[in-house]
């Protein structure tokens, strides 16, 4: 019992460090950040869609002045769905988002603690977890960028490497199945972070294949990545196969989001600058791009310890003593990540597939955070295992204090109020909020982005029109006066019933027939039934609105949003994969439990015979 309590200490300390790092988030105002408006409006949009009958809201009907947006057919929704769960549980939208940030900070530290403990030892877990949540880039995501997706992804990513390592060390099926679930969560958390971390995890898996793998290891790797891709296919398959339906490629990689404008410099990576501004071309950035001086020092010290261990036959190596330690691969990710932030990597940026969608080269700092925190954990482990316990305790406390002193000042939030008169956000320190609230022009974000205002505000929830359907040549400028427009006067509406998900009309057309336009963007998934038979829909040229030709006579028209064949097939694949995974996991657990019971019985018999 006591041993369990002692082994839990690093996790408790790391969890407390995560809470401390994100504590400023809990103030009763929206944290100021690059994505603050976007993330808040997305959660409000999901909440509206859920209450309107969209179980999995691929389509948000209230965006673009009520013309709708397919954003979550393409953008990973897990952080926003978690916020919505907290919202439905009674926390409200604002604190739903805040609780996701807090949960992300705690889980990022704990998951890193788990990986470092498995790799180097218990004290490594403590050090790596604390360094993870205090690293400058993680605090940038919390307090400068308000990047809820990256925070959640960095909380999940270490678990993928942990289960890969457990699979290699145990050879059991359980880590493979658990890793598949983690891969699903990572893909579902943030598109760009998943791209970076999954690529690194595939490299890690390949390295493990050449480090004396247990029997069946390669097959179980296929199980891990295969099941992970299958159960997440309901998200990524439509996002890839239906990418031609939206204007994403140019919007996500052009103009401001062109990677060539956002390379960091070596001076910026080595600086300790802190600010709350934006990324620009050159060295004029007013947001921090520092790697973290203490992390750089810890990484260097950890690498030296790792190489010295290799020289003296570290147990981290395989049974032949060859230098194929997976820890060396994880250590190498740090300089590789820093290289990709610099302009000298431009050739790779021009030729590697998909990398341009990362947009900002400094996003590779999240991979540096991961690697450097692990190596810092090794420094903690070596310090804690010094022969003199008092000296070891002093060194560990000194290392923790150094991290707090180096980075604690960066865990300082700025808060957001909206200036209604000027139509822009106002950034305020905590001590400025009370005075600012006396200004009637400054309102809370939750008041400005109230649910009943969203359809009339032209909210897009993207920096550019990333997920605007390709048939729309220009975004609308105002909310439509009515949802249905008659293009030919020979059509009359006898009866109507309109909801965001379904539009039902009883129409009467003259002898020449007619045409109506429904003020919703055309997008695959909208289907129409006229008098019980499926009819084809078409987009209106230029506006991209839904157009329906009405033949002579009286007709009942029902237009509703449903899944396309690709979405249906991928959803069925995900559900089927999830069911199989649960069944296989259950069987594997039962088999392991039975084997453990038999092992204990044999041990008891041997002890009885000896007596």
Tally of discrete structural domains: 3
Distance between the termini: 29 Å
Structural class: alpha+beta
Total E-strand runs: 12
Question: Which segments are poorly predicted (pLDDT under 50) over 5 or more consecutive residues?
Answer: 311-323
For the sheet with most strands, the description reads:
5 strands, antiparallel
Strand arrangement within the widest β-sheet reads 5-6-12-8-9
Description:
The protein is α+β, with helices and mostly antiparallel strands. The chain has three domains: 2-266 and 289-410, no CATH class; 415-448, no CATH class; 484-562, Immunoglobulin-like. It is 54% helix and 11% strand. It is built from 21 helices and twelve strands. It has a five-stranded antiparallel β-sheet with strand order 5-6-12-8-9, with no helix packed on it. A hairpin with a 2-residue loop joins strand 8 (526-530) and strand 9 (533-535). Helix 2 crosses helix 4 (78-119), helix 5 runs antiparallel to helix 17 and helix 8 (173-189) runs antiparallel to helix 9 (191-209). The longest helix has 46 residues, at 565-610. 45% of the residues are buried.
Summarize the structure.
The protein is of the alpha+beta class and 611 residues long. The chain has helices at 2-21, 36-51, 63-66, 78-119, 122-134, 136-143, 148-170, 173-189, 191-209, 217-231, 233-241, 248-253, 266-270, 293-311, 326-341, 346-351, 365-384, 389-407, 433-436, 445-448, 565-610, and strands at 415-419, 424-428, 442-444, 484-486, 491-498, 502-509, 514-521, 526-530, 533-535, 538-539, 545-550, 553-561.
């Amino acid at each position: 019992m006591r041993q369990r309590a002692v082994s839990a200490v690093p996790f408790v300390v790391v969890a407390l460090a995560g809470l401390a790092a994100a504590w400023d988030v809990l103030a009763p105002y929206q944290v100021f950040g690059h994505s603050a408006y976007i993330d808040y409006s997305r959660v409000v949009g999901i909440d509206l869609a859920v209450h309107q009958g969209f179980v999995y809201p691929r389509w948000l009907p209230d965006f673009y002045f009520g013309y709708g947006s397919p954003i979550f057919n393409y953008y990973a929704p897990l952080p926003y769905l978690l916020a919505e769960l907290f919202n439905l549980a009674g926390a409200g939208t604002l604190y739903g988002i805040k609780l996701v940030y807090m949960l992300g900070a705690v889980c990022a530290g704990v998951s890193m603690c788990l990986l470092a403990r498995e790799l180097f030892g218990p004290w490594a877990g403590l050090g790596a977890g604390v360094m993870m949540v205090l690293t400058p880039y993680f605090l940038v995501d919390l307090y400068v960028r308000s990047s809820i997706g990256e925070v959640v992804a960095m909380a999940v990513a270490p678990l993928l490497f942990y289960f890969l390592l457990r699979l290699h060390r145990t050879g059991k099926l359980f880590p493979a199945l658990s890793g598949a679930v983690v891969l699903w969560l990572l893909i579902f958390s943030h598109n760009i972070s998943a791209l970076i971390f999954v690529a690194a995890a595939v490299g890690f898996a390949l390295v493990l294949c050449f480090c004396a793998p247990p029997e069946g290891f390669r097959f179980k790797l296929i199980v891990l990545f295969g099941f992970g891709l299958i159960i997440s296919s309901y998200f990524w398959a439509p996002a890839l196969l239906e990418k031609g339906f939206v204007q994403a490629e140019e919007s996500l990689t052009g103009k401001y989001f062109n990677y060539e404008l956002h390379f960091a410099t070596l001076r910026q990576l080595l600086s300790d600058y802190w600010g709350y501004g934006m990324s620009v071309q050159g060295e004029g950035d007013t947001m921090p791009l520092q790697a973290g001086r203490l992390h750089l020092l810890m990484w260097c010290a950890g690498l030296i310890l790792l190489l010295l261990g290799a020289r003296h036959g570290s147990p981290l190596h395989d049974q032949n003593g060859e230098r194929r330690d997976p820890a060396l691969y994880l250590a190498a990710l740090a300089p590789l990540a820093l290289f990709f932030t610099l302009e000298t990597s431009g050739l790779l940026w021009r030729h590697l597939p998909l990398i341009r969608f990362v947009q900002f080269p400094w996003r590779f700092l999240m991979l540096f955070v991961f690697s450097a925190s692990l190596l810092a954990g090794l420094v903690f482990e070596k310090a804690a295992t010094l022969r003199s316990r008092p000296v070891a305790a002093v060194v560990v406390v000194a290392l923790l204090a150094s991290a707090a002193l180096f980075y604690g000042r960066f865990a300082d939030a700025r808060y957001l109020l909206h200036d209604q008169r000027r139509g822009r956000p106002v950034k305020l320190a905590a001590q400025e909020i009370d005075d600012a609230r006396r200004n009637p022009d400054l309102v809370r974000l939750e008041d400005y982005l109230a649910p009943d205002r969203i359809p009339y505000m032209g909210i897009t929830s993207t920096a550019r029109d990333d997920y605007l359907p390709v048939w729309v040549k220009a975004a609308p400028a105002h909310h439509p006066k009515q949802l249905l427009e008659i293009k030919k006067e020979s059509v009359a509406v006898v009866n109507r019933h309109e909801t965001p998900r379904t539009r039902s009309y009883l129409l009467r057309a003259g002898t020449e027939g007619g045409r109506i336009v429904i003020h919703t963007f055309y997008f695959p998934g909208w289907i129409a039934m006229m008098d019980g038979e499926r009819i084809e829909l078409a987009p209106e040229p230029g506006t991209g609105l839904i157009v329906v030709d009405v033949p002579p006579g009286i007709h009942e028209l029902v237009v509703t949003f449903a899944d396309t064949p690709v979405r249906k097939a991928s959803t069925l694949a995900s559900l089927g994969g999830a069911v199989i995974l649960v069944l296989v996991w259950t069987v594997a657990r039962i088999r392991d439990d039975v084997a453990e019971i038999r092992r204990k019985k044999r041990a008891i018999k041997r002890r009885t015979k000896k007596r």
